Amino acid sequence: MQYMVVLFLLVAVFHTLSAEGLHLSNLSPVCLRCICHASSNCNKTIGCSGGRCGPLQISRQYWKDAGRYVLPEDNPNRDGAFPDCAEDHSCATQILKQYIIAHGKDCNHDGITDCDDYAMLHFNLKSDCSVPIDATNYGLRYSTCRPTANLDDDDDIT
């Protein structure tokens, strides 16, 4: 009986930690909009160029590292599954969330994992997210909408 209870609890914990069920603290709608703004000015018609696709400028390897998320009813093995998802704002946001779930950490080593870390991770990727982004075009755009205590999650930043 104890074995069944433990098994049930493990299944419940796994379900809670799945990408759809996990709540990432400090990953607010403002943060998501700001990362989108930093990536492409949140251009939802940007398409694919230079191996990066969509408003979040996601690469195929990033998509794979995030778990190959696709549009509903799609197959991740289909040739166009990656660009179709990356070019769709909602689907691309799910890729970003899954990447953060899989690889998120305190990139700037300030003791808090927040939007600054997620922005650094998105730009620098999982291999070394600690590289400063301040002097990059991405970092400059991020600094113009960086979430602060004064911003509300309902503020419009595009």
From TrEMBL:
Residues 1-19 form the signal peptide. Its EC number is 3.2.1.17. It holds the Pfam family Destabilase. PROSITE patterns: LYSOZYME_I (PS51909). It comes from the Eukaryota. It catalyses: Hydrolysis of (1->4)-beta-linkages between N-acetylmuramic acid and N-acetyl-D-glucosamine residues in a peptidoglycan and between N-acetyl-D-glucosamine residues in chitodextrins. This is lysozyme. It is an enzyme of class 3 (hydrolase). One of its GO terms (molecular function) is lysozyme activity. Keywords: Antibiotic, Antimicrobial, Bacteriolytic enzyme, Disulfide bond, Glycosidase, Hydrolase, Signal. Gene3D superfamilies: 1.10.530.10. It comes from Laodelphax striatellus (Small brown planthopper). The keyword Transport does not apply. Coiled coil: none annotated. The lineage of its organism: Eukaryota, Metazoa, Ecdysozoa, Arthropoda, Hexapoda. GO terms for biological process: defense response to bacterium; killing of cells of another organism. Disulfide bonds join 31-115, 36-42, 48-53, 85-91. The keyword Metal-binding does not apply.
